Amino acid sequence: MPDDAAPATSSASSAPSPNPSSPAATETPVDPDTPTAWGPTLGELEEARELVSTWSPEQLAGGVIVGRFHGTDPEEPARMLRDLHLAGVSVTGDNVVDEPQVRAMTTALARAAKDDGRAFPPVIGVDQEGGYVSHLRGIATDFPHFQSAGLAIESDARLGRRVTREAALTTGLELRGLGFTWVFAPVADVTIGAADPTIGPRSPSEDPGVAAQAIGAAVKGYDDAGIVSTVKHFPGHGTATNDSHDTLPVVDSTLAEIEAHDLPPFESAIDHGAPAVMLSHLDLTAIAPDVPASMAPEVYDLLRDDLGFEGVTITDSLGMGAVGGRPTPALQALEAGADLLLMPVDTTATHQIVVDAINAGEVSRERVEEAAARVVAVQLWQARIAAQRPVPVDVVEQARAASADLESAAY
Questions:
Q1: pLDDT tens-digit series, residues 95-135
Q2: Checking phi first, is residue 332 left (phi over 0); if not, alpha (psi -120 to 50) or beta?
Q3: Rounded-to-integer distance, Cα 216 and Cα 347, Å
């Protein structure tokens, strides 16, 4: 395994391809156990592609949606997941009561996926960054703001990376113990300080290099825990001076400024095997003016072609003010390159919109299959790693110790 400070240096996707006319190209079989750069093996990715090729439009549409739900009844999200074939759901603080209710909910969701004929777990995700963005407050261990990771690294880089990785590892294990398969963290945004109203201490640092180290360590910890991490909010929300929960922020940074200030943590995440990246709702005037980044093909091209990311792309919540008023935000994001559509305002209506678009050819079945296959593949990976790494019986004690160590190293 690479050190938590060093970029990953090998992957199946980065290996040079043989000349297709050479004997080696025709005689050497591809090893299905070869890992991709983002987690799943080539065999798991091919299995996922074959599976989704058999899906109906209804299954495909569901397979690219992570729904929202209201209330705290575990059977409500389970019914949605089963009936709409959803990839999964996002759990917020409004959906939780206490630990038994959370466990009942995640158990019901896992059962609903099995009832829907799936041999892999659903996406059960939650914002659990540490600090004030922690939707399981009082249920899972409290960790300090992710800013603590950057402060710890600034104080002692080696120790800082270690405690950051341990914090992510124990967070991931504790979430898995509660039944979650995804965590919507870590935050890779490089804040500009007081002028940044949205990210602030959620960011690891105002220094791109420090932030890159923190993100690399965190991604490695989450990977080791067998939970799907979600690096956010590409290509960086830290310079936005408006809150995308309310409006579409305009970011006038040049491409060179974005590359120097915002991209290093995302590059580090990719080097360390990040399985998923969340796209922001920002108007990036230098890349795709007047279009939210989450719906701009140019931004997905930046992530995939320039940075080399091959994993799952997921939008920020489609219920945010930044994308309000757009007629079909989910379709725009899917066509632009999103693999998962997060928390549309109306999950059922959005599912039908995507079904109708597939049937009418408004979005190609090939694009939706590509997206759904990545999601299935990462869930196959998650299930495999989780099976290999059981949650320890003293996970809560380990998490509390890791939280204390992170805070101590930072302050």
A1: 999 999 999 999 999 999 999 999 999 999 999 999 999 99
A2: alpha
A3: 33
- The answer to whether 281 is a known catalytic residue is no
pLDDT bucket at 27, cuts 50 / 70 / 90 = low
CB count in 10 Å sphere of residue 305: 9
* 8 A C-beta contact, residue 130 and residue 204: no
Question: HEC states along 271-329?
Answer: HCCCCEEEECCCEECCCCCCCEHHHCHHHHHHHHHHCCCCCEEEECCCCCHHHCCCCCH
pTM: 0.92
Q: Are 257 and 325 spatial neighbours (Cβ–Cβ below 8 Å)?
A: no
- H-helix or E-strand spanning residue 107: helix 99-115
CB-CB contact of 273 with 222 (8 Å): no
Strand partners, 273: none
Active-site hit among 73, 245, 301, 356? 245
Domains of the chain (ranges; CATH) run 32-410 (3.20.20.300)
Going by their DSSP bridges, the two strands 228-229 and 133-134 should be labelled as unpaired
347, 321 in Cβ contact below 8 A?
no
Q: From the candidates 196, 283, 316, 405, which is the catalytic residue?
A: 316
Examine the residue annotation and report whether 196 is marked as an active-site residue of this protein.
Answer: no
